[in-house]
Model the fold of this input.
Amino acid sequence: MNDSSTNNYESEIKKLRDELNKEKNNNKALKIENEKLNNIINTMKTENINLTNQIKQLESQLNKLRLDLQNNKSNNNININNSLKINSNNINDLIVPLLPGEKIMTLIFNTQGTQYIVNYALECKKTILFVRLEEILNNKFPDLKKHDTYFVVNTRRIKRFQTLEENGIKNNDVINIFLIDV
Done:
């Protein structure tokens, strides 16, 4: 072989060695990059597991809070229904259970011809007998017992032994109390 061909081969070999070294370096760089990416993937997997666990814990807490809220709501409704009271001034704490769909109404009481009772409000159900409200007023205002009384709403005399509804009494009606001296 001649020198020129030997030089060509040597040059070719050198060129191939350089390319091989270049590829080895690229391979090393890719291995390092691959290792970094695998570390990132592992870190993300760990974070994903942690976040999934946190989500499960938060869902569990949310379900517990929902259950607590539902129990509290039920307890509050029971407490409200069991302890709803008409302003009774201790007439055995006249407890009025409130059934679903029933509403409380407010009535305003005023004595006529005297300032004895002025804008006194009572809360009650429309199904209560009027005589029960009269009993409450007599206990709240004991001097009322010294007089014969009659009650008027919207110019109509109220029948004591009928319910508020039967008497046509509505929420926020003003009930006038007339005192008859005997």
Summary: The longest strand covers residues 104-112. Strands lie at 104-112, 120-125, 148-153, 156-157, 174-180. The longest helix spans residues 3-83.
